[in-house]
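Protocol step 4 of 6: structure prediction from sequence.
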Amino acid sequence: MSGKESDLDIDAAALWLEQHLPGFAGPVQAEKFNRGQSNPTFHLKASSGHYVLRRKPPGELLKSAHAVDREFRVQRALAGSDVPVANMHILCEDRDIIGSAFYVMECVRGRNFDDPRLPELDRETRAGIYGEMNRVLAAIHTIDLSARGLSDFGPEGNYYRRQIDRWSKQYRASETEPIAAMDALMSWLDNNVPDDDGIRTLVHGDYRIDNLLFDENGSACVAVLDWELSTIGHPFADLAALIMQWQRPPGVEGRGLEGVDRSALGLPEDQAFIDRYCERMGLPGIPGFGFYLAFCFFRMGAILQGVKKRALDGNASNPALGLKLGASVPDYASGGLAAARTV
């Protein structure tokens, strides 16, 4: 296929890549991935091989959102580390080529799971997958920022203070109707930010099972995807994001483990996963974990509100799915308030 595939001008992208990416050759076919509500992502099938193109969405965007240049930078910096990432090929920051910045990376073969129950796998493989998720998360948080050229990848100061401020502004900018629980959660977080403990690590920002690729025949993680929200920050936010996801209802939409008999499936309980992470990080435990959990519920709610707004404005990657995801914002707000009550 040539011409245009949804919101990608294939011919323009292919011409630029033939001129700037050594070895790239057309003709090119493009297929849009269903996953990825934020930055549209495409599988490119070219004469020279398979690639993945990830671009900013078209249309008017919120400031600092959809930072494909940062995604490209951090993944290139992590090449050869204990954090598995796709090889980065090239970044195009010239908006005139296809209408926005984009980058092209290796097409990694692997399995992607939407359902954390992993119903298609046996008990042993499930346990291996969760062990890998724990290992890779600790690997992200122990990256030597200076050695990887990432010392300036995020500002100094209290990570949670700036994140709450940022996502509150983003939420207000994309607000479509009043949500009392979200207002209450933002107010509670604003008044309960913990003191800065000086811990600064690389954080992924959206670490969950559907943002990971695993070996086609085993449990090894072969690539961590979707680094749009990555920065230098506080590691407990990544850990809490996983636990938050597991507290959601099971199934294709909730993608959680609420009410699931984890022991029967060979899946770890929340505290067991946290304890193993702490062992890997050399930590005695994590006091006040409810704050980090409440923060993650809030941030995801703000993200999904942005998805809903883009769907209503007509520039979402998948408008129908965007509206469906946006409808869950009140549930995330309620979950955050429940977590806050445990602190």
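Step 5 (inspection) to follow. Confidence is low (pLDDT under 50) at residues 1-5.
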